Each structure stands twice: as C-alpha cells, then as structure tokens.
Amino acid sequence: MPRPIRATISLPALSHNLQVVRNHLQLARQDCQETTGKSFGSPFIWAVIKANAYGHGLENGIKGFGQADGLALIDLNDAIRCREKGWDKKILMLEGFFEQADLPYLQENHITTSIHHIAQIKMLEKMPAGKPFDVFLKLNTGMNRLGFRPADCAARFQDLLVLQKQGRVGKIGFMSHFSSADGQPGAIDEPARLMMQAIEGLPGALSMCNSAATLRYPSLAFNERENWVRPGICLYGASPFDTPTETATAFGLRPAMSLKAKLLSVQHVEKGESVGYGATFTATQNTRVGVVACGYADGYPRHAPTGTPVVVNGVRTRIIGRVSMDMLTVDLDPVPDAREGDWVNLWGHNGPHIDEVASHAGTISYELMCALAKRVPVDLEE
Ligand SMILES: *Cc1c(COP(=O)(O)O)cnc(C)c1O
C-alpha cells in the first residue's frame, strides 16, 4: 500500500492554461493591430516541457499541451520520447545538441535545435548532408548564459546559410532569452532592441518570450516575422511574477499540480512545549498539532517556515516547526474537527496556491514543481 500522500496532475488544467496564453496573445494581437494599423499573424506557441514537464510528467505534458504548435525541452531522450508518443509537430531543443553523436537523432526525428556556440556549428559541418533540420540562432542579449553576441549574428547567420545550401540545415530562425522579464517594467527594452537590431535585414522566424514576457510584453510577438513564444511556468498554472496583482489567478491560470497528504497523528502540545527538530516552534498556548505524511523527501520545501499555509478540511491553517524528511506538523487549533486520516491540502486544488507556498519558503514555484519526488504516487485527472 502506498503512503497516504498523493500528487494530482490535471490534464484539463494544462490544456486550459495553454488556451489562456492563446487568448492573451489574441487580445494583444487586436491591440497591436489597432495601434499600428498593420495586420499580424498569431504567434506560435512552444509549450516548454523541460525537467519532466516541470515535474508534471513528460507524457502528461505531451497530452495536456496537445494543442500547442511545438514542444520545447533540453533532453534529447525526452525529445525522442515525444516522437515515440506520436508528437508530430515541432520540437525545439532549447540548449541545442551536446555532441556529434546527437546529430543523427535530430535528423531522424526532425527536431529543431538552437545554435548558441561555435562548437555546434563545427559539428554541423561534419554531419552527413541530406537530412536538414531547422535551427534557431541564439543570441545573448544580456542574460550572459548561452548565445552569440549580437555583433556576431550576421557572421554566424552566414555560417548557417552555407550549411543550409549544403543540405545540412533547414529553416533558420532567431531566438534570445530575457533575464528580467519578471523584473522592473521595461527591463526587456534594451535586450529586445539589441535583438531586433542584430537580426535586422536577416530573414527568419523569431522567438524571444518566456512566460513572463508573453504575459507582460506580448506585443514583442507581433512584427513582420513568424513569431514563436516559449511559455513554461504559466502553462502549469503558476505565475512568473511576485507582484500582488500579476497572480496566476488574475491571469485565469489553473494549478495543474496538487499535493495532499493525510494526518498520521494528532498531538496535544502544552503551552511552553516545542515541536519538531531544533525545537523551532514553541506553543504559546495548549495547541492541537497535526502530523502530516509529507516531508522534504517528498518534495515539500524544508525551508518552509512556521506560518506557511496549508488547508485542512477546508480551513486554512499553517505549518508549525521544521519540515522533516517524511513528515511535517500543522496547527490544528483552527480546525477542531480534524482527525487522524483527514487529508491536508499542501498546494493546488483545495489548498494554498503553490506560488504562496514557494514564496513562504523563499523560492519559486518552478523549484517546488520540479522537486516533486518520485516516491509520491500520482493521480491523473483526465
Ligand atoms: C525554461 C525556458 C523557458 C520557459 O520559461 P518560463 O519562465 O517557465 O516561462 C523559455 N525559454 C527558455 C530558453 C527556457 O530555458
């Protein structure tokens, strides 16, 4: 018998969130057309399913995002798995390929790849011609992680044109990645300007926007090019922002991952007694304490302090004391009817929002989703 802990992954929520992004882009499109008097195509959407679809399961991502125009990820094995599962639309390798031996797989599986480093161009030159795949030339516009300098864009584009003539490379597009689309308003102005300047006069599709940029600056996806956005976190129902107004709920996003576990035990702790490792919580009054079958080995953040919200029998209460490996403890004073065996909603459906839990733990929902442990049994909502 499994332990009394369950994650639920909702495929309808994944599909819903994809539609929310489409609708958001559609509204932005109308806006942009009205303000410029020009007409723009709808941007295409790559659903980002790296990291096991942000912890939701690769296959759930493939199914939930069936209406996406493409899937974007970083692991070639996962890309091949998408093909095996019948995904016949585009697949983008966000970090490209890593060694020469990867290339035949890209060729056989028609996988699009980013090109961010000269070593990758050298490998393409050595690859047998005749089975071209599409590429996105990745430029570094300020993240200073992956990508060519904007000043080198034209030269690298020429390299790719040669490879294209040789039948090694198919269509050539351009991509960049923002470091601070969730930061100060306008933080993307300079990176976006650098990008547009670097690719001016060079034909090809364009991809710049992650979730934050797609939600906050959708007009970036409207220009004379074919545009692709690359949302990840918002498709799983969480917000990339930590402002009070730009919440997942405000955008109409629905949590796709829920986590709950049962009360294993109810303790009566007297005033002055403490709870858990390090005795970090001391009761200021006699308190009913619930012991929940979920700990950091399940993916619940150990850094979640006393006060992190949970929901028991529909009542919002809080964690008290330290999260341990297999258990955590909650304040049951607000829930007098709570008994051993009752479910405690830790995040998602009927629980606090995962963004709230993350914020209490000093992290982001991305990390909580990715950290959901293998040992947690998953129920699928289809
Ligand atoms: C992860 C990733 C994304 C998606 O980012 P979110 O913040 O989850 O929307 C987009 N582009 C690249 C290159 C990425 O690595």
From TrEMBL:
The gene is dadX. GO terms for molecular function: alanine racemase activity; pyridoxal phosphate binding. It catalyses: L-alanine = D-alanine. Its cofactor is pyridoxal 5'-phosphate. Its EC number is 5.1.1.1. The modification N6-(pyridoxal phosphate)lysine is found at residue 50. Substrate binds at residues 145, 325. Pathway: Amino-acid biosynthesis; D-alanine biosynthesis; D-alanine from L-alanine: step 1/1. GO terms for cellular component: cytosol. The active site is at residues 50, 277. This is Alanine racemase. Belongs to the alanine racemase family. Catalyzes the interconversion of L-alanine and D-alanine. May also act on other amino acids. Keywords: Isomerase, Pyridoxal phosphate. Residues 256-381 form the Alanine racemase C-terminal domain. One of its GO terms (biological process) is D-alanine biosynthetic process. The keyword Transmembrane helix does not apply. InterPro entries: Ala_racemase (IPR000821), Ala_racemase/Decarboxylase_C (IPR009006), Ala_racemase_C (IPR011079), Ala_racemase_N (IPR001608), Ala_racemase_pyridoxalP-BS (IPR020622), PLP-binding_barrel (IPR029066). The keyword Metal-binding does not apply. It is an enzyme of class 5 (isomerase). It comes from Advenella faeciporci.
